[in-house]
Structures are given as structure tokens and as C-alpha cells.
Amino acid sequence: GRDELVEEDVVAEVVDEAMEEDEATMVEGEVTVIVDEVEVVVDEETMVVDEVKVIVDALTGIRTSLGRYNMLGFE
Length: 75
Description:
Order of helices and strands: HEEEEE
Distance between the termini: 13 Å
């Protein structure tokens, strides 16, 4: 199985909280949420999370993408 650093419910919760608290930033129709070391990119119209990335090394900015996420789970 995949050793996911981000649980699916955590991702959904991060998106919901950021939207409610206006902590999300709009960039070209995408909502980018950065909480702790998790970056979530959401398609505004479909509310599909296009990218779920975990920062692996804060110093170099190297990230590992966990792939698409559609609120039902990782594809």
C-alpha cells in the first residue's frame, strides 16, 4: 500500500477550514491551501482536489505528489 503522509479526511478538513476562514488563495481558478506541510490545490468549479503535495524537504522545497484526490479518496 501507499504510505500516505496525508489522510484523506485530513485533506478534506484542511480544504473546508481554509475555505471557511478565507485562508485559501485564489490563483487562476484554483484554490491553493497551505497548512503546515500540506499543499492542496482545488479546482474551484468541480471542487476536485487536483494536487495533494507534501513538502519533503523544507530547505530545498522538494515535494512528493500524492496524486489526484476527489474527496472520495485517492485515485
